[in-house]
Amino acid sequence: MPQPAPRERSAIFPRSRPRLAMKAPGKLTREGNSAVRLWQRSLRDGLAQCIRKIVEMTNQPARKDHVLPSGRPAPSPHGSQFPSSRFWEFPMGQMQCAKRRHIREPGMRRERDGVRIVRLPTIRSKHLDTFIHTLLSTIHACFSNYDIVHYHCLGPSLFSIFPRLFGKKAVVTVQGLDWQRKKWGWLSNRFLKIGEWTSARFPNQTIVVSRVLQDRYQSRHAKHTLLVPNGTEIREPRGDTHLHRLGLSSDGYVLFLGRFSREKNCNLLIEAFNKIDTSFKLVLAGGSSHTGDYAANLRKHASDRVLFLDWLSGDALAEVLSNAAFFVLPSDLEGLSLALLDAMGAGVCV
């Protein structure tokens, strides 16, 4: 009797899957697969009984290739391109993203560029914000009819095993080695290092945004990753309506755009600028990322020459970005900065 032809697999999701049964350290075997499947089924059923009591189930019509990005995928407050739009070239029926409910933006919408935004609660805390939000996003994804769950960054990758237990595909995009960021303490760094380990082993596919990250995963974890660099749009020059309101003039200021965190070295940028005798102004647009003390100390240096702006979006962002004389990013830790790419897309000298 002829055997049916094997089902084709895409390049994004390799045929191989992790085996949990081991016969020797570092050596995987097929033995014990029945026990593994029984354990997976028991865990899945147990989770279902506990979580169904606290999760409101929504009946959605069957679609093809739902994707739920989880972690930090939604458009950033400073207006950088939606990272998951890099995957729109693949045929998909519907894409949805989970976003923190406490993040408020002007003109906040339930849908953007065809992407439905699902807002979920979290605890507004440095150490629990991302953890709780990703946990709830994972619960939502596991009990919804998504086919692919897409996690961003190392911390959220800790949860990427659970969609697989529910028969879904999991993807992790690594934007950088977050455990190197100066804002995290020893314990948080340990969890983020574990997140690096899980990002190489739990998901069906690991994506990186730079060649440096790809080389690290190959040498450190013997993991072949998919390189998908961040992208941006070419921005047309804008007027100066918002500039006059902010007290700025076209080509009359140096711009920093991003989070006020220690690895961005904004303090060094201010010190260096104050040593220069120039008619230019220094504009720092952004806000803190659980680094309130550092951001508050930075704002003490505000003057007629050094201006601080809150997060920008929409037309205000486009004007401030496209009319800058220079864009400066003194950071010592980046994956592939979206703010930097946005400045290049606006034709600004970087």
Mean pLDDT: 74
Query: What does the radius of gyration come to?
Result: 23 Å
CATH class of the largest domain: Alpha Beta
- The helix fraction, in percent, is 25-40%
Number of H- or I-type helical stretches: 10
What is CATH's topology name of the largest domain?
Rossmann fold
Record field, number of beta strands: 14
Coarse structural class:
alpha/beta
Give the low-pLDDT segments. 7-28, 49-64, 73-93, 102-107
| Overall number of structural domains | 3
Distance between the termini: 65 Å
CATH homologous superfamily (4th level) name of the largest domain: Glycogen Phosphorylase B
**Main sheet record:** 8 strands, mixed
CATH architecture of the largest domain: 3-Layer(aba) Sandwich
Give the strand order, joined by hyphens, for the main sheet: 5-6-4-3-7-8-9-10
Q: Per DSSP, what share of the residues sits in E-state strands of 2 or more residues?
A: 15-25%
* Bulk shape: elongated
Note the run of SSEs as H and E.
EEHEEEEHEHEHEHEHEHEHEHEH
Summarize, please:
With 350 residues, the chain is α/β, with parallel strands linked by helices. The chain has helices at residues 33-51, 129-142, 161-165, 186-199, 211-221, 241-246, 266-274, 292-299, 314-322, 338-345; strands spanning 22-24, 27-28, 66-70, 94-100, 111-112, 115-120, 148-152, 169-174, 205-208, 226-227, 253-259, 281-287, 306-309, 326-327. Strand 5 and strand 6 form a beta hairpin.
Describe this structure in words.
The relative contact order is 0.11. It is built from ten helices and 14 strands. Helices cover 29% and strands 18% of the residues. It has three domains: 38 residues; 168 residues, Rossmann fold; 105 residues, 3-Layer(aba) Sandwich (Rossmann fold), CATH 3.40.50. It has 350 residues and is an alpha/beta fold. The protein is elongated, with a radius of gyration of 23 Å. Strands 5-6-4-3-7-8-9-10 form an eight-stranded mixed β-sheet.
